[in-house]
Amino acid sequence: MPEVMFAGPDGRLEGRYHHSKQPNAPVALLLHPHPLHGGTMNNRVIHALYQRFQGLGFSTLRFNFRGVGRSQGRYDGGIGEISDAASALDFLQAVNPNAHSLWVVGYSFGAYVGMQLLMRRPEMGGFVSIAAPASHYDFGFLAPCPCNGLILHGAEDELVPESSVKKLVDKLNTQRGISIDYRVLPVAGHVFTPEQTEKVVDAAEDHVMTRLNRSRMALAAD
Fold first, then answer.
1. Secondary element (H or E) of residue 48
2. What angle do CA 87, 88, 94 make, to 5 degrees?
3. DSSP character for 72?
4. How far, CA to CA in Å, does 55 sit from each of 52, 65, 149?
5. pLDDT of residue 220
6. Which domains can be identified in the chain, with CATH numbers?
7. Would you state the pLDDT for residue 214?
8. Among 32, 33, 147, 174, which one is least packed by beta carbons within 10 Å?
9. Is 90 exceeded by the pLDDT of residue 216?
C-alpha cells in the first residue's frame, strides 16, 4: 500500500496506490465522503473497497481531497474537488496507459464528485455510487448519463432519503442505452456498520465483475 503524492490543481495530493501485476489491468479511483464532515481516504467503506479492488486485480488509488490529511489546499465547495479527482485520474492513466477499463467509485460526497467526473471524462467505463447525496445536490447534469453503473443506498438513510435516489435512478433508466443496477441495503443508514460495509463491498464486486465478464465474452465472440 505505497504512499504517493501527485500534483493537483491547488497543490500536492496525498494518496495510497496499489499497482496490479496483471498486464493491462483495469483501474479504480476511489473517492471519499465530505471533507468537512470527517471524510478521508481512510474511511471504512473506501478502505474496504480499496482492498477488495486490489484483490480483484485492479490498479487502485484512493486519495485525500484538498485540505484533508497531507493534501494541500482548502475545501472548495465541490468544484475544486472535481478537479482533484480529474488530477487523480490523470495520475492513474499515466502509470496505467494500457488499462482496458476505468472505474470511478465514490461514497456520499465522493459519489457526487465521481458522477461529475464521468461527465468530463468519456473514457470512463463504469461507476459505483454509494449513498449518493441526491437530495443535497442536483444530479441533473447526468443528461445523458455516459455509462452504466451501480447505485447502492441504505433503506433507512437518515441524511439522504432513499426515495430521492430512487427518483434519480428511474430518471437515468429512461435514457437510451442506460441500465442502472440499483440496490437498496435493508436497515442501513448513511453510515455503514462493519457488517453492512462488507455487504456494500460484495455488491460492488458482484456488479463490477459481472460487467467485466460480459465485456470479455463480447470480445471473445467477435
1. helix 44-55
2. 90
3. -
4. 5, 24, 20
5. 62
6. 3-220 (3.40.50.1820)
7. 84
8. 174
9. no
